Every structure is written in C-alpha cells, then in structure tokens.
Amino acid sequence: QVQLVESGGGLVQAGGSLRLSCAASGRTFSISFMSWFRQAPGKKREFVASISGSGEATNYADFVKGRFTISRDNAKNTGYLQMNGLKAEDTAVYYCTVAGDWGQGTQVTVSS
After folding, report:
1. What's residue 28's pLDDT?
2. Which residues contact 88 (CB under 8 A, 6 or more apart)?
3. Which residues pair with 92 in a beta bridge?
4. CA-to-CA dists, residue 18 to 25, 38, 57, angstroms
5. What are 55-96's pLDDT values in tens digits?
6. Rg of the chain's alpha carbons, rounded to an integer?
C-alpha cells in the first residue's frame, strides 16, 4: 500500500502557475505509474496526466497538453504537476494516484 499526500494547491489568477506535489510512502513508488486526476464540483473525476516509474513515458489529457508537465523524483518519493497558463476551468480538486491508492486531494482555484 502506498500513502500519498498532495500539496501545492491554492488560489491563483487566470494565466498563473502552480506546482503540485505528491509525496509517497512505500517501496513500490519508483516502479509504479503515477497519475494525476481532478474533479470539479458536480463533475466526474477525470484523468489529467500520468508518468511511468522511470519517468521516461508521460501521457496527458488533451485539455492540458502544452500547459501542464508531470514529473517525478524517485529519490524523494515525490511526484509533481507543474501547471502553467491556468484557466478558470482548471478549478478542481487534484488527486494523485499510485498503484491503486489515492491521496486526499489538493484544491486548485483559478479566478478569471
């Protein structure tokens, strides 16, 4: 089992940036895919981005391509989501997930 704690969310103006972190415990972090999802009020949770255990392979939802970057530092057991060019529609709770486990989420609010 992997325990995950997200941080870095907050309130930002449209066009601004935030960097989310996902701190993980457990031995399996470095060999596991890590993904970010988000859930806006009244909407289903949706995929944002994923990264392989080695960090060599990444995948993004179309609506974040060119704006968000997923990365990881296995030495620190931490994953990241760099979010640039934020839009009001990016407002959501952002979750990281590894090996079927989920964090508690971090709120991102973008004011227009």
Report:
1. 81
2. 14, 110, 111, 112
3. 108
4. 23, 14, 22
5. 999 999 999 999 999 999 999 999 999 999 999 999 999 999
6. 13
Q: Which two tokens stand for residue 47?
A: 């995929």
β-pairing verdict for 10-13 and 3-7? unpaired
**Distance in angstroms (rounded) separating the CA atoms of residues 26 and 61:** 27
3-state secondary structure 75-102: HHCEEEEEECCCCHHHCEEEEEEECCEE
User: What six digits make up the tokens of 38?
Assistant: 């988000």
Give the contacts of 82 (CB within 8 A, at least 6 positions apart).
17, 19, 68, 69, 70, 71
